[in-house]
Design brief:
9 helices; alpha/beta; about 45% helix; two-stranded antiparallel sheet; 2 domains
């Protein structure tokens, strides 16, 4: 009788232990499934930052590069399975579940130089690539009265932006109306010394909304994204741009983007494309740094 009871106790203990092990296995599997799903749902997005282009080797530098480099970049992206996306594509993915390509990449062009229209736009059309161009809106207004246009220093005009935006390849970003400068160490839209929070909010909103209104009036579409001049912001900036209605913002931190939610679109990082690297070296360095 004793041995029968002992055997029953052993079987009961074994059954309890088995259930415990099964429960642990199910819990671990669930955690792994959640982690896997999280990784699957995130977007890894390299964003490239260009400025100007020139064929004059004496003027090529960190910010002004050879048009051939851009052509080589687009060829490299094409040959390595990358597909360019727009800000609208990215926003729609997180808001509406719109599918993105397996290897997305974003091309951005800052400041709105005339050379973007002369050199970059034809290459975008040739390769069918999308891009975000972020001009300083006052510079476009000023360019309307520029009778001495030169690809080495001039800005694009509204008619050129209408053409580029009408192609479906180019979207415009807000790069401020007239705050792309440095005064007393304050860069772009940073808060000024001694400026109250309310004063700062009024000043920034007035400028950014003016840029939005000008761009929408001239092209038919207001920017969805702001591109911070110099990548500089203050702690109050994010709430202001969200209040204005932007869906994304871009800085100048050279870092790969791992995006999980719409909130992640308010600090999109970008890799500056210099003139002294080949496309292969640049993109491999980008992947390593990311």
């Amino acid at each position: 009788m004793y041995y029968v009871i002992k055997r029953k106790r052993i079987f009961a203990a074994a059954a309890i232990l088995g259930m415990l092990i099964l429960s642990i296995f199910i819990s671990i599997s669930g955690i792994m499934s959640v982690q896997t799903a999280g990784k699957k749902d995130c977007i890894t997005l390299p964003v490239i930052m260009y400025h100007g282009f020139t064929e004059n080797k004496d003027r090529q530098n960190l910010y002004i590069i050879s048009p051939q480099h851009l052509k080589d970049d687009l060829e490299y992206l094409k040959n390595n399975g990358y597909e360019t996306i727009s800000v609208s594509d990215l926003v729609s993915h997180f808001k509406n579940g719109t599918k993105l390509p397996e290897k997305p990449v974003m091309l951005t062009f800052d400041d709105g130089y005339y050379d973007n229209y002369v050199y970059a736009y034809p290459l975008l059309k040739e390769y069918g690539c999308k891009a975000l161009i972020s001009p300083i809106a006052k510079s476009i207004d000023d360019a309307e009265n520029d009778d001495n246009r030169n690809v080495m220093w001039s800005q694009c005009r509204w008619e050129e932006y209408r053409e580029m935006c009408g192609s479906g390849l180019v979207e415009l970003g807000n790069h401020t109306y007239d705050l792309h400068h440095i005064n007393d160490g304050i860069q772009g839209i940073q808060k000024r010394k001694g400026e109250t929070e309310s004063e700062y909010k009024v000043r920034i909103k007035d400028d950014l909304q003016k840029a939005n209104e000008r761009i929408e009036k001239e092209t038919g579409k207001a920017p969805q994204a702001i591109v911070y001049p110099y990548g500089a912001v203050s702690s109050e900036t994010y709430s202001i741009i969200k209040e204005i209605g932007f869906s994304a913002s871009f800085d100048c931190e050279e870092k790969m983007n791992i995006l999980y939610s719409p909130d992640d679109l308010f600090s999109i990082h970008r890799f500056l494309r210099p003139d002294d690297l080949s496309s292969e070296v640049f993109f491999k360095k980008l992947s390593a740094d990311g």
